[in-house]
C-alpha cells in the first residue's frame, strides 16, 4: 500500500465529504476509494470513520489521524516547493468558513485574481458566523472579526473595520439622533440576537467599555436582515462599517456618535495545532494584499 497516497485519499475524503466525490476527482470507481480507506484502517488497526448512507463521521482516532496526515502532506508540499525552487505551484482545496454576508459583499469579488495566480487551488466557502467549530469540521480557515474566542485557534490580521452606529436620514428626520450612549434608551433600535439573547452594544474598550442593551420592535439573528431593517428605517443599529460600505458612500445611511466608534481586527483564523500549508499561506497573503487596497478596511481613527 502506498501510504502517502492513502493519506491523500483519506484527507480528500474528509474535505470532500463523500466517496463518490473523491472517486470522480481521481477518475476511478467509488469501490476503489472505499477499498483504499479500508486498507488504511487495517494498516492502522483502528476505524477512522463511521460510514452512514448520508454522511461520513470521523471517529476519535480519525480526528487524530486527519490532523497528523494534514500536517504531513502540508510538510511534503512545502518541501517539494522549496527543493523545486518554487517550480511546484501550491495546489489543492482550501475550506473556509465565513459569515455569508461578508463573503458576498467583500470576499467573492477577490477570488478571480487569486485563481489567476494559483489555478491549481480551489476554494470552498461554507456559511458560518463563528470560527469555534473549525477544527472538528475539518476547515482550513475561518474569517472572524474581533478577538479570538478559543485558545486552540491562532489568527492573522488581514484587515480591520470600525464598529459604528448607523441609521437612515429618514429615521433621523423623524426621531432625531442620539449624542451619547446614555441617550440610546430613548431611540428605537434594530436588535441583533445570538443564541436567543440580545447582543449588547459596546462603546470603548477594556475597563472603560460601556454596554448598552438596545430595544426595538425588530429583532433578528441574521446580519443581512439587520442590514435591511436599518435600510427600511426601522431603527438604529451597531454594525461593522463593511456591512454598510455602499450605503455610507451613497449617503443612504449615516454614521452616528463617531467619537464612540471602536476598531476591531478581521482575522484569518486556523487551528493552532496544525502547521500552515503553502496553499493556506498564499491565500492569506492574497487577502492581505487585496484588502489593503480597500480604504474601508484600513480606517483612520481620530
UniProtKB/TrEMBL annotation:
HTH lysR-type domain location: 1-59
Signal peptide annotation = none
| Annotated protein name in UniProt | LysR family transcriptional regulator for bpeEF and oprC
Key words, A-Z: DNA-binding, Transcription, Transcription regulation
To which species is this protein native? Tunturiibacter lichenicola
**Gene Ontology MF terms in the entry:** DNA binding; DNA-binding transcription factor activity
The question of whether Nucleus is a record keyword is answered with no
* Pfam families recorded: HTH_1, LysR_substrate
Family to which the UniProt record says this protein belongs: Belongs to the LysR transcriptional regulatory family.
CDD domains, per database record: PBP2_CrgA_like
Gene3D superfamilies of this UniProt entry?
Answer: 3.40.190.290, Winged helix-like DNA-binding domain superfamily/Winged helix DNA-binding domain
Looking up PANTHER family in the UniProt record yields: HTH-TYPE TRANSCRIPTIONAL ACTIVATOR TTDR-RELATED, HTH-TYPE TRANSCRIPTIONAL REGULATOR
Amino acid at each position: 500500500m502506498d501510504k502517502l497516497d492513502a493519506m491523500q485519499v483519506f484527507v480528500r475524503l474528509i474535505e470532500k465529504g463523500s466517496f463518490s466525490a473523491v472517486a470522480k476527482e481521481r477518475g476511478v470507481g467509488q469501490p476503489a476509494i472505499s477499498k483504499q480507506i479500508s486498507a488504511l484502517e487495517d494498516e492502522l488497526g483502528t476505524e477512522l470513520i463511521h460510514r452512514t448512507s448520508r454522511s461520513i463521521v470521523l471517529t476519535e482516532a480519525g480526528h487524530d489521524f486527519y490532523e497528523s496526515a494534514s500536517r504531513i502532506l502540508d510538510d511534503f508540499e512545502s518541501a517539494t516547493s522549496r527543493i523545486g525552487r518554487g517550480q511546484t505551484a501550491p495546489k489543492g482545496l482550501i475550506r473556509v468558513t465565513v459569515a455569508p454576508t461578508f463573503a458576498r459583499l467583500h470576499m467573492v469579488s477577490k477570488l478571480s485574481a487569486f485563481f489567476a495566480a494559483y489555478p491549481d487551488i480551489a476554494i470552498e466557502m461554507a456559511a458560518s458566523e463563528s470560527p469555534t467549530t473549525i477544527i472538528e469540521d475539518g476547515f482550513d480557515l475561518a474569517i472572524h472579526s474581533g478577538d479570538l474566542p478559543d485558545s486552540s485557534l491562532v489568527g492573522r490580521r488581514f484587515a480591520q473595520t470600525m464598529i459604528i452606529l448607523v441609521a437612515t436620514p429618514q429615521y433621523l428626520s423623524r426621531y432625531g439622533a442620539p449624542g451619547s450612549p446614555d441617550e440610546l434608551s430613548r431611540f428605537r433600535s434594530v436588535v441583533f440576537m445570538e443564541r436567543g439573547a440580545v447582543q449588547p452594544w459596546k462603546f470603548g474598550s477594556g475597563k472603560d467599555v460601556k454596554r448598552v442593551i438596545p430595544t426595538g420592535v425588530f429583532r433578528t439573528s441574521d446580519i443581512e436582515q439587520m442590514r435591511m431593517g436599518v435600510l427600511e428605517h426601522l431603527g438604529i443599529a451597531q454594525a461593522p462599517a463593511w456591512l454598510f460600505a455602499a450605503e455610507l458612500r451613497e449617503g443612504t445611511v449615516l454614521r452616528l456618535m463617531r467619537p464612540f466608534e471602536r476598531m476591531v481586527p478581521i482575522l484569518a483564523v486556523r487551528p493552532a495545532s496544525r502547521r500552515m500549508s503553502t496553499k493556506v499561506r498564499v491565500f492569506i497573503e492574497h487577502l492581505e494584499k487585496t484588502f489593503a487596497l480597500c480604504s474601508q478596511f484600513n480606517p483612520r481613527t481620530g
